[in-house]
Design a protein that fits this description.
Belongs to the carbohydrate kinase PfkB family. Keywords: ATP-binding, Kinase, Nucleotide-binding, Transferase. The structure is a single chain. The protein is α/β, with parallel strands linked by helices. It is built from 11 helices and 14 strands. It has a single domain, classed as Ribokinase (UDP-N-acetylmuramoyl-L-alanine:D-glutamate ligase, 3-Layer(aba) Sandwich). Strands 1, 4, 5, 6, 9, 10, 11, 12, 13 and 14 form a 10-stranded mixed sheet that branches. A 4-stranded mixed sheet has the order 3-2-7-8.
């Protein structure tokens, strides 16, 4: 496999109105792990998603959805508990309000053995996240074990979620995983304040590097990405969006495209640039998988095809 992603795909019920007023919802599928996997596959990588799903109708539909987007679903296995879900609606300010239905989900019972029995250790790029680690103790162990046993490049998305875990627990996982990574992605200030105690992008990169990560991508929204590659800093601008419909999943599309580019042998700066292009294009769709960028689109938007090994 070029890219293997481990985590929880979710059923998505979305509305165009606040949750307190919404009466009609669209059914789709999202979650950070699924978004990343779909984005990586769309960008040309042979991609597998590793998780547990409920032995239910939603789990079956989710497998069909992922397969239809080019993701290898052989390691999406039935487990105890339901398939996780979330409900999302818009509020008058344009922000989106989320309600999660994932407690006790099948994916929260993911174990290190699930990763061992998958191609995770042999993938060119393995993508893990703080959300996956925060689902349960066994998920945290799976993330730590998979990062330590990987023979390819590990991409770790810090992705702190206060609803799932405390800053101290998330920071402990980051400390454990960072030395095994090729690159850590962390947003500032949302993730960085909670996990390394600073909103400053340069200081964020330095503190994560001090934990053992050789490279750090500090994502800054419309201000682009600060990439610390060893002692070298690159300021990579965001790609202006041609159309903005929904920002959900933009960071996941960034991670998926970046992973795909790394798998094809691109340099870290080129991989990050590909991620910024994919994130920009994703804004034109609704939901985390509503608009995913193909490799040719990314190259066209960047204006310079990326060569790799």
């Amino acid at each position: 496999m070029d890219v293997v992603v481990a985590g929880e795909p979710l059923v998505e019920f979305s509305a165009d109105h606040p949750l307190t007023e919404a009466e009609t919802f669209r059914l789709s599928f999202s979650g950070d792990a699924l978004n990343v996997a779909v984005a990586a596959a769309a960008a040309g990588a042979r991609t597998a998603l590793v998780s547990r799903l409920g032995d239910d109708e939603f789990g079956e539909r989710l497998i069909r959805f992922a397969a239809g987007h080019g993701v290898d679903t052989r390691w999406l296995t039935p487990g105890t508990g339901p398939t996780g879900a979330y409900v999302v609606g818009a509020d008058p300010s344009g922000e989106r309000a989320f309600a999660y239905l994932r407690q006790g989900s099948a994916a929260s019972r993911l174990t290190p053995a699930d990763l061992t029995d998958s191609p995770a250790a042999l993938a060119r790029v393995l993508v893990l996240s703080g959300i996956t680690a925060a689902l349960s103790e066994s998920c945290d162990q799976a993330v730590r074990s998979a990062s330590a046993n990987a023979t390819g490049q590990v991409v770790y998305d810090a992705n702190f979620r206060a609803r799932l875990t405390a800053p101290e627990a998330a920071a402990a996982t980051l400390r454990a995983v960072a030395p095994h990574t090729a690159i850590v992605k962390i947003s500032a200030p949302a993730d960085s304040m909670a996990l390394v105690g600073t909103a400053d992008p340069v200081e964020t990169a330095r503190r994560v590097r001090d934990l053992g990560a050789p490279s750090v991508a500090v994502t800054l929204g419309a201000d682009g990405v600060l990439l610390a590659e060893g002692e070298v800093f690159h300021e990579i601008p965001a790609v202006p969006a041609r159309l903005v419909v929904d920002q959900t999943g933009a960071g996941d599309n960034f991670t998926g495209a970046m992973a795909a580019w790394l798998a094809r042998g691109a340099s870290l700066p080129d991989a990050v640039r590909a991620g910024t292009a994919a994130a920009s294009l994703s804004l034109a769709g609704r939901g985390g998988t509503g608009r995913v960028a193909a490799a040719a689109e990314i190259e066209d938007l960047l204006g310079d095809p990326v060569s790799g090994g």
